[in-house]
Amino acid sequence: MTGTLEAFTEAERPRVEAAVAEAIARLAPPVGAVARYSVGGGGKRLRPLLTVASHRAVGGARKGIHAVAAAVELVHTYSLLHDDLPTMDDDGMRRGLPTAHVVYGPAAATAAGAALQQRAFLLLADAAGRDFELAPALPRLIRRLARAAGVEGMVGGQYLDLEAEGRDVDPAGLEAIHRAKTGALISAACAMGAIAAGASEERVDALSDYGASLGLAFQVVDDLLDELGEPSRTGKAAGADAARRKATYPSVHGIEGARDQAEAAADVARDALERLDGDAEGVNVLREYVDFVVERLH
Fold first, then answer.
1. Which helix (H) or strand (E) holds 74?
2. How far apart are CA 210 and CA 244, in angstroms?
3. Could you check whether the bond before residue 48 is cis, i.e. omega within 30 degrees of 0?
């Protein structure tokens, strides 16, 4: 992690963590316990920090931006809870810890995921209620997050991913899965930062495109790390994708081909940033996030 990104993370991550903790503090047990276990299990907080960085990149300074970012993280955590369930990927480890359904049972994990999704949208509404300058952006923020979380995004991508297990998938089909399952929420996270700042449609679109390509690069790298046996980096058991015969970039393109795909997606993300003319520091943070994602391979 380079200097600008490290300084940004040190300054902004505690604010994101505080907003996330506040959002779920009053969730009743046992759902609250599962939610706090899942949210508190670590993770890079990539998506909410991208929301804040995108906000800064277009000159945003809304006091409610950390709540907007926290809403993105709650939706992400909901997706992980459901993704790990026995009826989905049946993962036993997440972020280096036993998954929530292993610790609390599938019923509690399912309920907690649903509660986190609901809480995310309530958090957006509450943030707009506290920050009158943010209020006009609320409908657009809700639409972006809902689409990213739904059948056009994560839900649809997860279904396609499950349907592809054990089947031959062509490159276009593989990309469609991961643009929906992973790229959609990262794209929304970046766009929401710009929307919260009142940025122009051109800037929102540039950051949305940046996030979509960054998300694709992120997924390709994750596929490679799983294939190369790096549980210390992924927080999951090595070889899990291959064991389930999942459609991955290494399985379709090979190891070197997948590396090329990651670099190509990263280049598209960098190109999207050239369409911005906002705050130089914020744009530099976003540029360094691209380097951070692909350098996990080295």
1. helix 65-83
2. 31
3. no
- Calpha distance 177→157 (Å, rounded): 5
How would you write the pLDDT of the chain (298 residues) with one tens digit per residue? 568 999 999 999 999 999 999 999 989 989 999 999 999 877 889 999 999 999 999 999 999 999 999 999 999 999 999 999 998 888 898 878 899 999 999 999 999 999 999 999 999 999 999 999 999 999 999 999 999 999 999 999 999 999 998 888 999 999 999 999 999 999 999 999 999 999 999 999 999 999 999 999 999 999 999 888 766 655 666 666 666 788 899 999 999 999 999 999 999 999 999 999 766 678 999 999 999 999 987 6
Structural contact between residues 110 and 82, judged by C-beta atoms closer than 8 angstroms: yes
**Residue (of 70, 63, 54, 55) closest to 14 by Cα position:** 70
Write phi, then psi, for 93 (nearest 5 degrees).
-130, 140
Q: Rounded to a whole number, what is the distance in angstroms from the first to the last CA of the chain?
A: 12
CA distances from 152 to 46, 157, 160 (A): 21, 8, 11
Helix 65-83, helix 184-196: angle, nearest 10:
170
